[in-house]
Amino acid sequence: MSVCLSSRRRFLGQTAALGLIGASAQAWAEDPSEAPKAAPAPPAAAESPAKPTPDGRPLAEPEPPPPETTSATLPLAGGPKDRPLTKDFPQKGTMILQSTRPPVLETPFKVFDDDVFTPNNRFYVSWHWGAVPITVDTTSFRLAVRGNVTRPLSLSLSDLMTGFPKVEVAAVDQAAGNSRGLFQPRVPGIQWGNGAIGNAKWTGVRLRDVLDRAGVKPGTVQVRFNGMDQPVVPGAPDYMKSLELARAMNDETIIAFAMNGAPLPLLNGFPLRLVVPGWYANYWVKMLSDIELLTEPDDNYWMAVADRVPDTPRADVAPGAVGYRTVPLGRMTPRSFFTNLKNGDKLPPDKQAQARGIAFGGDNGVARVEFSSDGGQRWSAAKLGMDYGRYSFRQWETMFKPATGNVTLMVRCTSTGGVTQPDVANWNPSGLMRNVIESVNVVVGGDEAGGDDAAAQ
Amino acid sequence: MQQHNKARAIRVLACGAVALALAPQPAFAKKKMSASESLKPLTVEMPTNNDVFPDRPGAETLDRNCLGCHSAETVMNQPALPKAAWEAEIEKMRTAYKAPINPEDVDGIVTYLVGTNGIARSKWR
Questions:
Q1: Which residues on chain B are in Cβ contact (under 8 Å) with A130?
Q2: Can you name the CATH fold of A143-173+196-328?
Q3: What's the pLDDT tens digit per position in A226-239?
């Protein structure tokens, strides 16, 4: 019955999902990792007056409610790093508040330690405009398919859900600006930590099947997607994204009506969302209500001006560079993270320790995940968890015996496409597509070693 | 229960995909939607944030020009940026996002942002 860390987590993806989510909720809540030492928190003393914990407390059955954590500290390249935690958003549990208007919520990173799939109520949220519809009448809702087609369609939800073969794909949904707050020099935009990402099983119908029903006419070059959200200022650019016809007709692009077996939360795109596995979430248009087949490349703002990256390897340019060519965002690149260790953690000396986390291959599967406990000098292969398909998170874990002192742990992923995470971070002025090897600095050997190099020797 | 799960996990390791298919409680089985299940109408309530900008010279100018599109926290979470970067941001808000910013207010907004940006939330709330 002892709840050890490794059993808390679905390394093999077999623990009953609901039970586990319930059980682990406490683990995140009491985990102070998100809480800064000098948090600008309200009087915390009032929340945990007398901790009635006996000495051998680990196995005590009815745990006292953990002290409420009210803020998170993100691992950004500089301040401000603190954000409030909020439970105020509909269909959402505890989230890191980046912005109330428009709604922008980050997933607390500990969530990724609990399951290879990210619970819907902890899944990150990002909108461009504050006017997100708060009501969806699913009986009158229609998805339009129009433009360069033989038969324009106006599909009800039931038409869509019952009229086409149903498919499911496990895929990582990651904002292109995930980890923007780690860019140096800093760049403006939502200052995400690493939590603008999540992994879900998406259920829906193939976009291709819907387009075939409408009849794609010759001369179609792109397909444009628009959702029900609107700009709040007249004349401002409505959020729309376009895919090349070939990518749209690819078997893997789907119109999803369910996420992890349940309807999408409104803030994740209820009732329908485009899912483009392997591509950044910027294309995964939420509240999808309009599909237009175009005979000319889309010149709307969100394709022609915004959401563009330098046309260089890894979208990398020198800070201050000008005059380079840009291209629209597209495929993701491989990344990997620690989920059970974070900067400043203390490990006992002379003992085996476990490191574990998540990895994904971007637009491909995970070929291997390698771990280093000496700052990247030597690498060894980590054990991989269940393979849920090339677009899913893949859990990894490894045991290691660290040296004493201040130790830098690193993890890197190589995709089945042969792409390995680089050891130097890319930079671009929009803070997009970060995928450098991540590292975590831990202290091995008790309090004496903490932060003191002399003691560490 | 944990033991049970562990035992199951080991079995799955050995049997791979077959065990996955046969497992009594595959992930998501409990809440699986059927294709014929209809989506119910949904109405949610969104939280609001009526905070104004931290009280420094020019705050009222930002209140007037910026809060229509985003809450103050969205701005105050930004890092310290050079003056030119803030000028470019304001210009983008005006031209690309059609923010109805009074041209005479631009300098004041930039001055305010250069003077406050990057400070910890604890110091401005």
A1: 69-70
A2: Sulfite Oxidase; Chain A, domain 2 (3.90.420)
A3: 999 999 998 999 99
